[in-house]
Amino acid sequence: MVDVLLLDLGGTLVDGARPFAHVDEALVALRKFTGTSGRALQLAVVSDFPPADPPTPAGQKARFAEYLSLLGGFGLRRHFQPAGRRVTLSTQVGVNKPDRRVYELALERLNVGATFGDCLSVTEDAGHVAACRALGMSALRFGGDFTDWSEVPLMVRHLVDPANGPNSTVALRLWLAAHHGRALAGLVGAPTSSGARLRLRPPGPLGARVAFGPDGRVVDLTWDGAG
Fold first, then answer.
1. Of 12, 170, 209, 217, which residue is least crowded by CB atoms under 10 Å?
2. Pairing relationship of beta strands 218-223 and 207-212 according to DSSP bridges
3. Helix 152-160 to helix 165-180 angle, to the nearest 10 degrees?
4. Share of the chain above pLDDT 90, in %
5. Quick one: CA torsion of 217, 221, 225, 227, rounded to 10 degrees?
6. Is residue 225 left, alpha or beta, with left meaning phi > 0 and alpha meaning psi from -120 to 50?
7. In the structure, what pLDDT confidence band is assigned to residue 194 with cuts at 50, 70 and 90?
């Protein structure tokens, strides 16, 4: 099951001073997703951050405010509101990832009754990917499993439920716009794990078929019909 998406920030969502290409659009899409349980997919960012000095409640509060300012500077804070539920820092636990206590606090703050088995972790750190999988989570590695954020909703859609039409529509809308500059009007029939038929908006061909690979990404696009 995938009902919760736990995201790393540095090196995963952002590269230095700015988000990677298509991160903002991918987060917009994923916030519209339904999880495996049929409830809204929950997004949270879970980051290592320097401990408060001194390590007091006031110091931790100041560190949290500092992190939120960074998140806002990247233009990503809006995707993780309310921050008290959707942002968890290692400094709030006193240990760094991949210690299970950091992820346990993240789920506690989300307060949706999720377990590790309901989570998909996305990070650039191969060691953290292995640790999350050992805890029972699904995991995707940026820079390994994928390098293009416009494909991430397709991969998440595949893990959640390949036959989910609304999730597929949202994911394919982003992918088509990013890779072909085309607008998706909707799906024709139900999607499957292997492919989907699309209705497109003019100008250009008004129909297409996509084939999905084993990880949910598009491996073939065939245009069908003239505009």
1. 209
2. antiparallel
3. 160
4. 92
5. 80
6. left
7. very high
> Is the pLDDT assigned to residue 226 strictly greater than 80?
no
92: its two tokens:
């709030």
The neighbouring-strand residues paired with 199 are 186, 207
Instruction: Please give the Cα distance from 215 to 154 (Å, whole number).
Output: 8
Q: Which two tokens stand for residue 139?
A: 């995991």
Q: And the tokens for 222?
A: 């065939």
Q: Which CATH superfamily is domain 4-149 in?
A: HAD superfamily/HAD-like (3.40.50.1000)
The pLDDT assigned to 227 comes to 39
d(CA 147, CA 9): 15
CA angle 196, 23, 203 (to 5 degrees): 45
End-to-end CA distance of the chain: 40
User: What average pLDDT score do residues 211-224 get?
Assistant: 96
| Residue 7 predicted with pLDDT over 90 | yes
- 3-state SS, residue 210: strand
Q: How many other CB atoms sit within 10 Å of the CB of residue 135?
A: 17
Task: Say how far apart CA 147 and CA 195 lie, in whole Å.
Answer: 22
Work out the average pLDDT over 34-58: 93
Residue 176's CB is within 10 A of a number of other CB atoms, namely 21
Domain boundaries, the chain: 4-149, 162-223
